[in-house]
Amino acid sequence: MGRSRIKIGVITGSRAEYGLLYWVLKGLQIDQDFELQLIVTGMHLAPEYGYTFKEIEKDGFKIDKKIEILLSSDSSVGVSKSMGLAQISFSEVFEELKPNIILILGDRYEIFSAASAAMIANIPIAHCHGGETTEGAYDEAIRHCLTKMSHIHFTSTENYRNRVIQLGEQPERVFNVGALGIESINKLKLLSKKELEKKLNINFKKKIALITFHPPTLENNTAEEQINELLLALNKLENTTLIFTKANADNKGKAINKLLEEFVGLQPEKAKLFDNLGQLNYLSCLKHFDVVIGNSSSGLLEAPSFGIPTVNIGDRQKGRIKAKSIIDCKPEEKDISQAIEKALSSDFCDFSKKCSNPYGNGNSSEKIITSIKKFNLDNISKKKFHDIY
Predict the structure, then answer these.
(1) Dihedrals φ, ψ of 271, to 5°?
(2) How confident is the model at residue 1 (pLDDT cuts 50, 70, 90)?
(3) 93 contacts: CB under 8 Å, gap ≥ 6
(4) Distance CA 13, CA 36 (A)
(5) What are the structural domain ranges in the chain?
(6) 249 versus 99: which is more confidently predicted?
(7) Nearest to residue 331, comparing CAs of 210, 207, 219, 209?
(8) pTM
């Protein structure tokens, strides 16, 4: 008899994470060696973020379990309660589905809860995008915790692979596969500028900016102050269309979104706010827009592949490897304005087109699926700490 199919539980809690996992999910869906168990949670199930689980279903995926965890509060207490609810719910789902391994990505708090439940249930964990640093958010600590709870690792650069090994993981279990988002850039047929304009239902002006700003979660009560500084800078831009996507469900995320709604409501001909753009629309924006502004990881990981500059605000992404097309600035109106002016200058735009992306050139999904098949999952849970000296 041949080897039985590997039941692999893939967990997604946000629009961005699902976009990164899309091609891995497609690969697992058609691979006869795997039985895909898709578990959806977090922002996917929240009306204020657009019920994005419906987009997952439209893409042809069967959702095996939906785990609702988001409470009405975006305070630290609310987030902690959501984490507790998530761990309880994941423990029950894992007992029911009995996956042979789970696949997780990134550093969000609901993923931490899922990994904690899997660890206690002795279910092996494969983790994508470990080893990275983001000094301005508690994602940093969560990401490294996930590394220590996981058994197979897929990093986005060789430097990050080395850092995972530095954390004590066995080198033969750590694979540099590049950033997962690059694969979609290569495989999707992106929209034309006219198609995008019609789909977003706004007339583009001479310049177009894509803006995403998430709470800097390791700073006390600065989110509203920082978004106001950003909005002051954006308000000065002339003949520029502003396309916003909402902040994550982190501490003060709802406060940021409320301010964005007020800003956009006052100038609908200039600005538009989306719960989520979806992968196709988002990447099409990167193809045709002039600049990315904010503190989202996509400005560092995917934007350089399109040769457009990114204005990276504050410390949320501090420590990540960056292309030379990234302009760092303080979360202050004057500094943001100067950075945007530089980014939109013809010289820097031309320079950005020539910059290479340090996060690879795609094909991550095949590397991930092939690597998981190599392991005997029955004997993988016990790990030796790998010393580098």
Answers:
(1) -135, 150
(2) very low
(3) 39, 65, 67
(4) 17
(5) 6-178+362-379, 191-353
(6) 99
(7) 219
(8) 0.85
* Closest CA relative to residue 162, chosen from 150, 149, 176: 176
Which residues, 6+ apart, have CB-to-CB distance to 103 below 8 Å? 8, 9, 10, 11, 21, 24, 125, 126, 128, 368, 372
CA distance 367 to 49: 31
Q: What is the pLDDT of residues 192-220, one digit of tens each?
A: 999 999 999 999 999 999 999 998 766 77
Q: Which CATH superfamily is domain 191-353 in?
A: Glycogen Phosphorylase B; (3.40.50.2000)
First-to-last alpha carbon distance for the chain, in angstroms, is: 44
The tokens of 72 are what?
């009405």
Q: What DSSP character marks residue 168?
A: T
**CATH superfamily placement of domain 6-178+362-379:** Glycogen Phosphorylase B; (3.40.50.2000)
Question: What residue spans of the chain are helical by DSSP H?
Answer: 15-30, 53-58, 76-97, 109-120, 139-149, 158-166, 181-187, 193-200, 223-235, 253-266, 278-288, 298-301, 333-344, 346-353, 364-373
- For 23-35, how does the pLDDT look when each residue is reduced to its tens digit (9 = 90+)? 999 999 999 999 9
The answer to whether 313 and 230 have CB atoms below 8 angstroms apart is: yes
The amino acid at 85: L
Cα angle: 321, vertex 326, 327; to 5 degrees: 125
Is-same-fold flag (6-178+362-379; 191-353)?
yes
> How open is the CA angle 164-166-172, to the nearest 5 degrees?
60
**Nearby residues of 380 by Cβ (< 8 Å), 6 or more positions away:** 124, 151, 152
Q: Which of 11, 15, 94 is CA-nearest to residue 49?
A: 15
* Residues in CB range of 102: below 8 A, 6 or more apart: 8, 9, 10, 11, 94, 114, 115, 118, 123, 124, 125, 126
Q: At residue 339, does pLDDT exceed 90? A: yes
What residues contact residue 134 under an 8 Å CB cut-off, 6+ apart?
A: 107, 140, 143, 297, 316, 317, 318, 319, 320
For 256-281, what is each residue's pLDDT tens digit? 999 999 999 999 999 999 988 988 99
